[in-house]
Amino acid sequence: MARKKRKIKSYNFLIVPDNKDTTKSFRMSAFSLKILFVVAIILVTVIITAASTYWKVASVALDYSRLKEENFELRNSMKRIENMKSDLSQMQKMNEKIRETLTGYVQVDNKALDDSAAIANLDFEKMAPEKKRTIFNFVPSLIPVDGFITRGYEVEDLSVDPHYGLDIAAAKGTPVRATADGTVIFSGWTLESGYVLIIKHNFGYTSLYKHSQQNLVETMEKVKKGQVIALVGNTGEISSGAHVHFEVWKNGQPLNPLAFVSTTVKN
Q: Does the pLDDT of residue 58 top 70, yes or no?
């Protein structure tokens, strides 16, 4: 008859130190050892599950942070696009106002110059003194700021982009003055030219002032010749120093401002 295997009820553990001190032993029941083993398995499972859950949560947090940053950049990009659209719209409106206002004729000494060719070819610089006085306050004949011309009127050189006015360098903050009596038809900001002013004068003339540090008059405000309308600045993407870009227009065509102010501006 086969001998029945005896059930193990406990285990003895012997601890032997390296320094040959007295050995130590302890006994643990088989049931307690099983419980300890199960607890260890549960603990390892919990640790693994917690680590996996933490990694998933960390991944979600990283994705959220990345999406939040991308959303912030997208909002900034949309804002820049809206600003560019606004600048473009202002430039278009400014161009339309210029085209609409550059019409009319010049009247001198109660005699109308009915000949359109004569009007287009009017040379203010060669005009008789008494005739100049007749339209003195209504034609852009005053230099807007005391300074030095760094670039002149250039429309005939095909190798460079047309330059429809004068660049007059002056210290930042220097007062810019209206070149004639008129009404402000545009006072605002554009991306390329910074702060811009457009003034409509009598007899179809219009003057433009660009790159100001600050405009001091508002749209539809009436101004007098010599009135301070802005401060010299360096605003706008195409500006490379403190100066005023000054233009004179008539009948939809740019005119050389030197024909009006050449005797009062420094070269």
A: yes
